[in-house]
Design a protein that fits this description.
Chain B: This is KipI antagonist. The complex is a heterodimer of chains A (about 240) and B (about 325). Chain A is of the alpha+beta class and about 240 residues long. Chain A contains six helices and 14 strands. In chain A, strand 1 and strand 2 form a beta hairpin. Chain A is elongated. Chain B has about 325 residues and is α+β, with helices and mostly antiparallel strands. Helices cover about 20% and strands about 25% of the residues of chain B. The longest helix of chain B is centred in the last third of the chain and has 27 residues. Classes of the chains: A alpha+beta (about 240), B alpha+beta (about 325). The interface between A and B is large, with 49 and 40 residues.
């Protein structure tokens, strides 16, 4: 039952009875991601009656709707309506100028108690701790999606030299703000949770704060840079935040 | 003035219809496990359908009313009583100040909803009063209720007052509480069953599963395990496997998604479903059957039945038409006492 939009190719598939998945491809790429965000942006600017919300992921955008509202209380076919409206939106999204990516700088203390696995990652890579810090903080990372936990970002673009396996035994508690590496991925723990990533540093910035207008610091589409700081600077930033 | 919690019970939280618009920031929708029961309980006390209520699970709490209050219970039957006298589900009840609501042996279901006139008045966080335990968000300080907690109630509306006066007509001085004698027709309520057949549709990774797994999912019974909670219901049965190993990129998940981790026992994501995940999604339970799913007790046997999208939509429209009929019926009762 999937609907195909030809140019550029895009598949629309029903998910359960209250969502449409827009499938843009099967591999992670900057181009696909740009197209996903363009449609998400078009939806935000021109929401249709019955739209609930949309969730961007690596290669898909899932659009949730209320079938009762979209079907005008059961008089139309909700899914057909959703496909019709989304088809129009996808077309419009192609014409839209994409918003330039926001660059977010995350100050990070690398190593020590802030990044207890820095030495392990360095040893695994055959590099010194300083080299790991340099490579990691020289990179520019794409936020592909937010998920798993509130404000948790999936980042793409880590230097392959830093690839490291997960911890054999996950930690019971990883502090919020911890910067980690797992396989080819790097990321920042947004809230304190159990976790198995190798921890190389920590940022004092709150990745998630329910009292902010936009609770998640990072959004899909942002670019992230890590900026090395000292423990003293960490404490100063933390204190500044506490005072709002 | 409001509600005071004595014994907290196994897990009592403030819930509403959930938090929408924040999934792209990683925040779950959450809200009531059985949203239809919450909606009906609210309608019965004259609230808007999505007002915040208490979600009470299995071993219920002890709740003292600190003022004369109109309430209704809906969902699981946890043998509720007021000052030792049984009180029935699915109808408005006027209770006198100082009375204590207690729960006993669960007769059916897991979650019952206590809706009170005016709603539970905790702060709105990100558009909702629902408690999201894992992130400590919403509800009362983002947590389950504890002994000694006090919950304030919202202001009464005109409809709340109509129901109150309908109950006052029946109030006998010596009684601790008064119930109306009517209750919604059983056809208007969710048809709970201990071992239900739940209708579902193949999900996007459905065809990744082996032919035999695709047979099993529609024909075998799966047992609900006790290690189940507001995030997920764990099932045990004939294990399910992919045709071949495949790379899965994290993608959207929702309430009713049946995902299959590598060990092969399916997990149904529930109200606090993570927004995204990386296990293959085999099927999606239709929206109209989620209330019945939420009320399956551990040990219950679930069978899945494949339905078309048209059928799934039709069943959802029927559910919403029942809610409309219920609203009208309640309005009629109130204006023709």
């Amino acid at each position: 039952m999937p609907e195909l939009i030809q140019n550029p190719p895009l598949l629309l598939c029903p998910v359960g009875d209250n969502a449409v998945a827009l499938l843009f491809g099967e591999t992670i790429s900057a181009d696909i991601h740009r197209r996903i965000l363009a449609v998400a942006q078009a939806l935000e600017q021109q929401p249709f009656d019955g739209l609930v919300e949309s969730v961007p992921a690596f290669t898909s955008l899932t659009v949730y709707y209320d079938p009762w509202v979209l079907s005008r209380q059961g008089t139309l076919d909700a899914y057909s309506e959703a496909v019709r409206l989304l088809g129009n939106l996808v077309e419009q999204a192609q014409e839209m100028q994409p918003e330039p990516a926001r660059v977010v700088e995350l100050p990070v203390v690398y190593g020590g108690t802030f990044g207890p696995d820095l030495e392990e990652v360095a040893a695994h890579a055959g590099l010194s701790a300083e080299e790991v810090i340099q490579i990691h903080s020289n990179g520019s990372y794409q936020v592909y999606m937010i998920g798993f936990a509130p404000g948790f970002s999936y980042l793409g673009g880590m230097d392959e030299r830093l690839v490291a396996p997960r911890k054999a035994k996950p930690r019971e508690k990883v502090p919020a703000g911890s910067v980690g590496i797992a396989g080819t991925q790097t990321g920042v723990y947004s809230v304190s949770t159990p976790g198995g990533w190798q921890l190389i540093g920590r940022t004092p910035l709150q990745l998630f704060n329910p009292n902010r207008k936009t609770p998640s610091l990072l959004q899909a589409g942002d670019r992230v840079r890590f900026v090395p700081i000292t423990p003293e600077e960490f404490l100063a930033i933390e204190e500044e935040q506490a005072w709002g | 003035m409001g509600l005071k919690i004595g014994k907290p019970g196994l897990l009592t939280t403030v819930q509403d219809l959930g938090r929408y618009g924040y999934q792209r920031q990683g925040v779950v929708v959450g809200g009531a496990m059985d949203k239809v029961a919450l909606r009906i309980a609210n309608l019965l006390v004259g609230n808007v359908e999505g007002a915040a209520a208490l979600e009470i699970s299995m071993q219920g709490p002890e709740i003292q009313f600190e003022e004369d209050t109109v309430f209704a219970l809906g969902g699981a039957d946890l043998s509720a009583s007021i000052n030792g006298k049984p009180v029935r589900l699915w109808r408005p009840v006027l209770v006198k100040s100082g009375s204590i609501l207690r729960f006993g042996k669960p007769r059916y279901g897991n979650y019952t909803y206590l809706a009170v006139a005016g709603g539970i008045n905790v702060p709105v966080v990100m558009g909702s009063r629902a408690t999201y335990l894992h992130a400590g968000l919403g509800g009362l300080e983002g947590r389950a209720l504890r002994s000694g907690d006090r919950l304030p109630l919202g202001a009464s509306s005109e409809t709340n007052r109509q129901i109150l006066s309908a109950l006052l007509l029946r109030d006998k001085k010596e009684a601790d509480f008064a119930e109306v004698q009517w209750s919604p027709e059983p056809e208007l309520l969710p048809g709970y069953a201990p071992n239900p057949v739940l209708r579902a549709r193949g999900h996007l990774e459905y065809n990744w599963f082996s032919e035999s797994s695709r047979e099993y999912i529609w024909h075998q019974k799966y047992k609900l395990l006790p290690q189940s909670d507001r995030m997920g219901y764990r099932l045990q049965g004939t294990t399910l496997a992919l045709d071949e190993e495949r790379e899965m990129l994290s993608t959207a998940m929702s309430f009713g998604t049946v995902q299959v981790p590598p060990q092969g026992n399916p997990i149904i994501l529930m109200a606090d479903a993570q927004t995204t995940g990386g296990y293959p999604r085999m099927i999606q339970i239709i929206t109209a059957d989620l209330p019945r799913l939420a009320q399956v007790q551990p040990g219950g046997l679930i069978r899945f039945e494949d339905v078309s999208l048209e059928e799934a939509q039709r069943l959802y429209y029927q559910q919403e038409k029942r809610m409309l009929a219920l609203r009208q019926a309640i309005h009629y009762k109130l204006t023709h006492v």
